[in-house]
Fold this protein.
Amino acid sequence: MKIWSVLVAFALAGCTGASSTGITEKPCPTDSTLTYASFGQSFIQDNCLECHAHERPILSTQAQVKANASSILEEAVYTDAMPEKGSMSLAEREMLGEWLSCGAP
């Protein structure tokens, strides 16, 4: 499955002009404190909902974000395909990756 995810990321990057961020898949850190309330909700609001409140995939709720976590990782953490408008720092992408790898609690 990991190989498939990497292949999808490269395919998406090739189609969209996206570049690798250099961030790789990592397990959830045991000391992670990121939650939907402390991080995810405001992060998604600030970086995703301009488009994804009404365009697929819809990311308006925590459940919708969890259901699309693998796509978000591929397009917004491992590559810079998203967000299409604006930009995120590498540190922001790393935090998003950590939160999603922990199951987006």
Remarks:
- The helical segments are 2-16, 36-47, 49-52, 62-67, 69-77, 90-101.
- The chain is about 55% helix and 0% strand.
